[in-house]
Design a protein that fits this description.
2 domains, elongated, mainly alpha, about 70% helix, Arc Repressor Mutant, subunit A
């Protein structure tokens, strides 16, 4: 095994080295270690729970490994990797959404046959529930903007939109949440 001191390498230098490696060599392993927590955090915020976040993060790193030679350094490596993470999470959420629709129908059929004793029971409303009313891209944009402190320039690059397009989508998404939950924005 060849030892590579990666401590002074930039992300972009490590990415170039990882592209030259035949398998998961030291440069790729270093990139994984550097980005393990940021990727998991994005996945958790987009997926909404630890189990789905862990699955999504694993899928992100598999995709990263398979596409490690495709990084062209047109943007920062972290931006490119976060784009992979976002696209992976959006794809997984869409497939999960289709599965959940079938589960909801099954639950509704069950609840009509077996109603709850207290029909006035309500679950506490939280931010993730509020975000779930948005489409997947708008939800992701709000999370990245306000929870991960992405700039509009970074969002524009990730979502292939103009900066003004990002501002408009975020503004519309915020208004949609305020309209749906007016009691939380008085």
């Amino acid at each position: 095994m060849i030892w590579l001191d990666t401590s002074n390498y930039t992300d972009e230098q490590l990415a170039a080295e990882a592209a030259r490696e035949g398998s998961d060599g030291p440069a790729f392993r270093c990139l994984m270690e550097r980005f393990r927590q940021p990727v998991w955090r994005i996945c958790y915020r987009l997926m909404g729970n630890e189990t789905d976040a862990a699955d999504a993060a694993q899928e992100v790193f598999v995709r990263l490994f398979l596409s490690r030679k495709k990084f062209e350094a047109r943007s920062k490596y972290s931006t490119w990797l976060h784009g992979i993470a976002i696209r992976t999470c959006l794809t997984l959420r869409r497939s999960r959404g289709r599965r959940q629709k079938h589960e909801i129908v099954d639950q509704e059929v069950f609840s009509h046959r077996h109603p709850l004793k207290d029909a006035n029971q309500t679950l506490p409303l939280d931010l993730m529930t509020m975000l779930d009313i948005l489409n997947e891209k708008d939800r992701a944009m709000l999370i990245l903007k306000y929870a991960e402190s992405y700039s509009y320039d970074e969002l524009a690059e990730l979502f292939n939109l103009s900066v003004s397009g990002c501002k408009m989508r975020i503004s519309r998404a915020r208004k949609q949440i305020q309209k749906a939950f007016p009691e939380n924005f008085s």
